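Data deposition worksheet. Section B asks for the primary sequence of the deposited chain exactly as it was used as input, without tags or linkers unless they were present during the calculation. Section C holds the resulting structure in token form. Section D is free text for depositor observations; keep each observation to a single sentence. Incomplete worksheets are returned to the depositor.
Section A, Depositor: J.P.
Section B:
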Amino acid sequence: MALRYGHTRAVSGLVVITGGSRGIGAATARLAATRGWDVCVSYRQEAEAAAEVVADCRTAGAAALAVHADVAVEEDVLALFDQAQDRLGPLRGLVNNAGIVARQSRVADLDAARIGRLLAVNVVGAFLCAREAVRRMTEGGAIVNVSSRAAVLGAPGEYVDYAASKAAVDALTVGLAKEAAEDGIRVNAVRPGLIETDIHASGGEPGRPARIAPTVPMRRPGTAAETAEAIVWLLSPAASYVTGSFTDVSGGR
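Section C:
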């Protein structure tokens, strides 16, 4: 295995991490950089935060890049993967992490615009990125889709539309894993549960983790770093016989 930068960091190849400027995506990028991956993170709004992630990855010895992209826009997805490969080399990993949630709402109060935008990012974006990954992983690779325990629990009274979008990601995981296995591409999903990230503020309740924590068997929220450990393991050769699987990082909830 190739070595770079004059020390013992083994290079695993290039991983693209969508939505990599904060939360689970940022934690995954930083961890992947320490585990031998070169990293390209995409971001839609937070350029400064994405630049900080890139700087941390480079400090860890990785080649790293941030690319502005809205995963719901096909042209942006194509440009993201083109820039990543042009500057960092052949693609070996994808973390399909970019996702959004809207303010807490009952289904009776949803409108088409909200549902459409959420599905465009969380479902269409995941499909587009997965498509580009399998087209470009000519020597095999690994895809990890970031789903959610909401896909199983339904998120009643809060995020049923988000839960439905993640159920679609679960179906993508199963189907693509079977399609891509003969090409040497593994496809798995991580389903985070109650995790301390900014997504709760986006839903209108920054303190939601504290409110929900008593319903978790482990009685606490998880962290982005704990979720990243599962993702990076699934990317790695240690998971070489794992595909079409779901790893719940949820404290038992």
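Section D:
The two ends are 40 Å apart (CA to CA).
Residues 23 and 197 are 5 Å apart (CA to CA).
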